[in-house]
């Protein structure tokens, strides 16, 4: 039992911090620009595919740096030449634009790299078990994923709270006209933040590609969960995104690991359920089978209790 809890907790932390890398960029973009970027997960997919190609020529470590930068440049260009032009038509136009962009990126990926999954493997330097407990080992690459994710969280926190650039970004969120009157180019700040958010999504794709797979549908796998994270944490709250990411990552990982049914739970509580009872088939469903819908059940619960999210400060 200890082995199950320990490794489920570790895997939950890895998955949760990966979700944070994705949701932090989306949170920054929404917090500053008020745009729920439906194409955010598509940038995550681009990061994985760029890294796959660059790894073949330069190796994994250069790709780890170059691929997110390329995705960030693509994101900045999208904001400068696309989203900025659409912005004056309102939020509905922005949502339609980003949704169409997500579809376009997926089609481009399939046209360039094909529909088959790519063999984007763990780098040889990290392809070994970091430690072994009982009969289970923990891969070094997962520890690397966790280390990178924690590093990104600390870096974002320090930049936004302790640097002049962070103060400008936060001021642009609440008082953009005042920041502009002080001589700062607010549209350029918006473009930089959109590019930074896209680069964070690309970095998540680089480190997740070897573990979760690199294939054209990878954006759809995590895309909806990232929006759940942002809403549960509170729209625009970086702290909320961090807490919600860990909560969902750990919850879903433990759910996958538990192979218990509602019948088992009822038996443990001393409640007898017969095969002829109402919804008899429902009682045989295992927790692992409902793990994929756990984040959405949590979303419904949070919205009922606190509609603005865990750390939200206003209705949006």
Structural commentary:
With 316 residues, the chain is mainly alpha-helical. It has a domain at 2-219. 71% of the residues lie in helices and 3% in strands. It is built from twelve helices and two strands. It has a two-stranded antiparallel sheet with strand order 1-2. A hairpin with a 2-residue loop joins strand 1 and strand 2. It is globular.
How is the secondary structure organized here?
Blueprint: H1 2-33, H2 40-58, H3 60-86, H4 91-113, E1 129-133, E2 136-139, H5 140-162, H6 164-174, H7 176-181, H8 186-212, H9 218-233, H10 238-257, H11 262-268, H12 294-305
Antiparallel strand pairs: 1-2
Quick recap of the structure?
By secondary structure, the chain is mainly α.
SSE run: HHHHEEHHHHHHHH
What proportion of the residues form beta strands (DSSP E)? under 5%
Q: Biggest sheet, in brief? A: 2 strands, antiparallel
Total helices: the number is: 12
Strand order of the largest sheet: 1-2
Flag low-confidence runs.
none
Number of beta strands: 2
**Averaged pLDDT:** 83
Share of helical residues: over 70%
């Amino acid at each position: 039992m200890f082995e199950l809890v320990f490794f489920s907790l570790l895997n939950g932390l890895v998955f949760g911090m990966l979700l944070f890398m994705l949701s932090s960029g989306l949170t920054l973009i929404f917090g500053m620009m008020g745009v729920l970027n439906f194409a955010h997960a598509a940038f995550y997919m681009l990061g994985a595919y760029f890294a796959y190609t660059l790894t073949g020529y330069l190796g994994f470590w250069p790709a780890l740096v170059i691929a997110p930068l390329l995705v960030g440049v693509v994101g900045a260009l999208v904001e400068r030449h696309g989203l900025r032009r659409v912005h004056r038509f309102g939020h509905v136009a922005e949502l339609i634009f980003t949704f169409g962009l997500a579809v376009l990126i997926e089609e481009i990926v399939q046209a360039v790299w094909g529909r088959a999954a790519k063999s984007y493997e763990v780098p040889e330097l990290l392809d070994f078990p970091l430690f072994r407990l009982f009969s289970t080992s923990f891969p070094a690459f997962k520890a690397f994923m966790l280390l990178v994710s924690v590093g990104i969280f600390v870096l974002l926190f320090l930049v936004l709270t302790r640097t002049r650039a962070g103060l400008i970004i936060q001021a642009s969120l609440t008082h953009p006209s005042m920041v502009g009157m002080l001589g700062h180019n607010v549209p350029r700040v918006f473009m930089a933040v959109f590019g930074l958010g896209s680069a964070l999504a690309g970095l998540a794709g680089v480190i997740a590609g070897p573990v979760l797979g690199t294939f054209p549908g990878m954006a759809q796998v995590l895309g909806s969960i990232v929006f759940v994270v942002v809403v549960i944490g509170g729209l625009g709250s970086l702290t909320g995104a961090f807490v919600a990411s860990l909560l969902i990552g750990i919850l879903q990982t433990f759910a996958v690991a538990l192979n218990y049914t509602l019948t088992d739970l009822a038996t443990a509580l001393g409640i007898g359920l017969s095969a002829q009872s109402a919804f008899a088939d429902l009682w045989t469903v295992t927790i692992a089978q409902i793990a994929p819908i756990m984040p959405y059940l949590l979303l419904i619960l949070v919205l009922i209790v606190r509609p603005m999210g865990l750390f939200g400060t206003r209705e949006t």
